[in-house]
Amino acid sequence: MSQWLVHVTELAMARQPNQLAGRFADTIRDELGLKNSLLLVPSSDGRTLVSHGEPHQLSWSVTDFDCPVAHVLQSAKPIYLGSDELVFWRSNRSFRQLTSCVSFMDTVAILPLPVGGEQVQSVLLMIGESRLMEGLVDQGEFAKYLEVFTHQWALLNKMQKEHQDRQVLSESLSDAQRDSDRRCVMSQLSTTLIGNSSAMQKLREQIINAASSKLSVMIQGETGTGKELVAQAVHDVSSRSKGPFVAINCAAIPENLLESELFGYSKGAFSGADKDKLGLIAQADGGTLFLDEIGDMPLSLQAKLLRVLESRVFRPVGGKKELTSDFRLVSATHVNLLAQVRQRQFRQDLYYRLLQYPISLPRLSDKIEDIEFLSHHFVSIFNQHNETYIRGLAYTAIDRLKQYDFPGNVRELKHLIEFACAQTLDGTEVTVDCFEHRLSPSHLFTPELGHISTHNLAASEATFTSGGVKDLKQTLNEFELHIIRERLQLFEGDRAKTAESLGIPKRTLAYKCQKLEIKTS
Ligand SMILES: Nc1ncnc2c1ncn2[C@@H]1O[C@H](COP(=O)(O)OP(=O)(O)OP(=O)(O)O)[C@@H](O)[C@H]1O
């Protein structure tokens, strides 16, 4: 009998309810020499009794009174069934199968646990020779063993429940923390990416999702829609924000220089390469590489870029050693890249590699409700930069802006507001008169004629002659800047058409845009 003491110690060592139940049922079977011993425990919803200690789990509904265990559970009284009494319990299939081993010398004992308690926690089912069952419950050591088990069972279940509660609590706390972090990033983004339209809200969500992934991000949108701003935002809200943000406009760099700009070069790689130079890919290590106007990347470089993206390994021009760089690629294009893929001007494999997380930016005319926010935002930036106090825009001015379709998108609006603020007396509001003429068609170039409209030419001449030309180079630059801006506006930012209409190669136009700091409009 001292053996029960050993078994009690074993029970005390169990740390999980399942482990405890298995050990308990096995001990009873082995110690008493029974044919079978099962512990039946109510399921978490309390609707079924489920077995422990049986290879094939059995379960009975707690209201299935075709089975004696339901009676024991309800009455909290033990039932002892001899082989002759089992014939009355044959309708329940699994109980019939479980007791099929019972011979005329055996008894099936079904005890509620705790024995003598009113609240049944579990049910013990034993099958064995009748002589082994007789008076078993009254044996002090066995009864004590059952009592210790029931206490331990209650204790471990309570501990497991508390552990689960703590886990749920900590999960909901970290969910709440995540939500609050996300709200915080959203509000941070709404101070740089202005607009409350549903398109802008969706955009901010996409930026956060893209930033928290490791995917390459492709930003598509017309000129002036904010592609560069979005690229910067993806970097700023990502875990790489402390790393570098390295940007390059592929259209603005002559084709032969782009490779060495991106990949760097080794000393002696070509004439003039008098020392090693780190390329932008290497500089972006730990941060973000932004390739603007990716559609202008030559095909030969596209293959090399794909290799870097796949393997993170690259070789500087003329270099012997391969280098590695861990960067996230964000690319942007204002052209339909898929059309370029179809025309075999852009590699399909690279296209899909870049498009892992696509973000499309809407035209300003597709989010008219943002025009007011943006206009006020640009007025306050103007005030900050110029230490003025322009008091916002008159309602009529905002209405007029909402009627215009802004081919140059947000950038055009920004320039228009800057221009209007410069026409506005400090302390007063921007009115329609300040910018109306810049919205009218006569302000634009006439494509058929290919020259500046007379109205505009007059305005330009007035500008250049009124103060007298003091610096020819600067004046010519200003004139060039004026012509390119106007032409880009006419062709709604399409650089290919603009370049063609001005009779210059697209790459020259891109170079001039870069030099004159024209972002188009
Ligand atoms: N939602 C916005 N909130 C505030 N400013 C914006 C927003 N969208 C664009 N801008 C501003 O508009 C101007 C143009 O933006 P950006 O340079 O990012 O456009 P882009 O699409 O990259 O243009 P491009 O294709 O011509 O290079 C910038 O001054 C930018 O700050």
Structural account:
With 521 residues, this protein is of the alpha/beta class. The chain has 3 domains: 159 residues, 2-Layer Sandwich (Beta-Lactamase); 170 residues, Rossmann fold (3-Layer(aba) Sandwich), CATH 3.40.50; 149 residues, Helicase, Ruva Protein, domain 3. Helix content is 49%, strand content 13%. The strands form 4 sheets. The protein has a 6-stranded antiparallel beta sheet with strand order 3-2-1-6-5-4, with helices on both faces. The protein has a 5-stranded parallel beta sheet with strand order 8-11-14-7-15. Strand 1 and strand 2 form a beta hairpin. Helix 1 packs parallel to helix 6, helix 19 packs across helix 20 and helix 20 crosses helix 21. The longest helix has 53 residues. About 5% of the residues have low confidence. The protein binds adenosine-5'-triphosphate (ATP).
Total separate domains: 3
Give Rg in angstroms.
Answer: 40 Å
Give the biggest sheet: 6 strands, antiparallel
Given the structure, what is the number of helices?
Answer: 21
Distance, first to last CA: 96 Å
Gross morphology is elongated
Q: Quick gist of this model?
A:
Keywords: ATP-binding, DNA-binding, Nucleotide-binding, Transcription, Transcription regulation. This protein has 521 residues and is α/β, with parallel strands linked by helices.
